[in-house]
Amino acid sequence: MATYNLNDIVLGVDIGGSHITAAIINLKEKKEIKSTWNRNLINAKGTSHQILQGWASTILQSMESVETKPEKIRIAMPGPMDYETGICLIQDQDKFRSLYSLNIKELLAAEIGYDPADISFHNDAACFLKGELYGGSLYGFDKAIGLTLGTGLGTSYTSSGKAEDADLWNMGFLEGIAEDYISTRWFVKRFYELTGKQVADVKELIDNHAGSTDFYQVFSEFSNNLASFIYQFIQRETPLAAVIGGNIAHADTYFMKETQQELNELLGYSFPVKKSFLGESAILLGAGAST
What we know:
Layout: E1 9-15, E2 19-26, E3 31-32, E4 38-41, H1 48-63, E5 73-77, E6 81-82, E7 87-88, H2 104-112, E8 119-123, H3 124-135, E9 144-149, E10 153-159, E11 162-165, E12 172-173, E13 176-177, H4 178-181, H5 184-195, H6 202-209, H7 213-237, E14 241-245, H8 256-267, E15 273-275, H9 280-288
Parallel strand pairs: 1-5, 5-8, 9-14, 14-15
Antiparallel strand pairs: 1-2, 2-3, 2-4, 6-7, 9-10, 10-11, 12-13
């Protein structure tokens, strides 16, 4: 069983709206220890006890293959949340409602046998951008924006060399807010409106309906929505590049080219929009490197 210098390792955790991923991060080598990588599905509509037990189980699994257990656990988590105290403030989204107002830092610490002071929470969108700047698609850029597309919409930007949460998921957009149009639930809702057929997520949409006229219409509309949103984001932050990650990014074949073309037309110049190079590792590395 492997041993490591305690100063060199932390446990990085990525909590999403439907999953949790955890791995021990070797800070000295700036990479995750592959043997400790674990990913499990989580029912974000479950009870607080069910969610916390699912998180705890995955975290403990990641520590089983190393003799030296990390002293610090750094968790990337979507907001809204009081990241300093560990109190979850998610209330009006389609996830984690049972955790609202709970101190999940203290509750999780009790589940895994850690001191709450050794667990820290960080915004997942900021962690994603931090990881990509650290050694991913945006390596070499010093001013950029990041978008994580999945159950929800995460947005981040660089400020004074640091990655920060842009918190634009609820920005007014079209006839609602940005997350209404740039998320898994938009795909599910829009495809049902066009066809009367239910799909669970973007993967099922691709697996069962790729090639149909309605399939291409949905992705074309999404491309236009995404380009319009990125355009507005650029006006706010004047970045030099953007990176896109999250589960929906796996479907980039169906929207990235059209999004890029539409965005360039809106801007009047070519702006680089890159797909995440690190994938899930970006958030884990970004979380691990956070303090």
